[in-house]
Amino acid sequence: MKEYLGVAAIIVYDRKLLLMLRDNFARRHPGRWALVGGKLEPGENFDAAIRRELKEEIGIVPEQLVEIAEYAHIDPDAAGKWSKFYFSVLTKDEYDKINKGEEGEKIDFFSIEELADLNPVGLILQNPERLEILKKMITTQKPISGL
């Protein structure tokens, strides 16, 4: 049993959620839409990891990045995984600077209605209760506890 540590960001602009299409080189879930984020590198803490992942995947680190959840869960591929989730509503200036980085096939923003057609992966996007909370965060553009 191997422990993994991960981070992911819920990035919202104009009531739409930013997702990344995982490329075919991804070890897990190639060709599927997911939140931006990834695993911690050795010796790295959660905050440093999310900043690095955002810079690598979307080219920016939003100024208003708030930690909203941390929990342990059982992952079918790797038991004992701890994840931390962050939330940010982008400014127009930040939105204009977003650019797909070195990972993933592409990035895009999706409305709540469009999410159902994407078949996304991830702890939040595949869990009905968490998905409802996520939809409220997208609509209100504010972090909500209970994720």
TrEMBL record:
Q: Which residues form the Nudix hydrolase domain?
A: 2-138
Q: Which UniProt keywords apply?
A: Hydrolase
User: Highest taxon of the source?
Assistant: Bacteria
The yes or no answer to whether the keyword tRNA processing is present is no
Question: Any stretches that span the bilayer, and where are they?
Answer: none
- Single GO MF descriptor: hydrolase activity
For this protein, the record's InterPro entries field holds: Nudix_hydrolase, NUDIX_hydrolase-like_dom_sf, NUDIX_hydrolase_CS, NUDIX_hydrolase_dom
Q: Which family is this protein grouped under?
A: Belongs to the Nudix hydrolase family.
Instruction: Report what the protein is called.
Output: Nudix hydrolase domain-containing protein
Q: Which organism is it from?
A: Candidatus Yanofskybacteria bacterium RIFCSPHIGHO2_01_FULL_48_25b
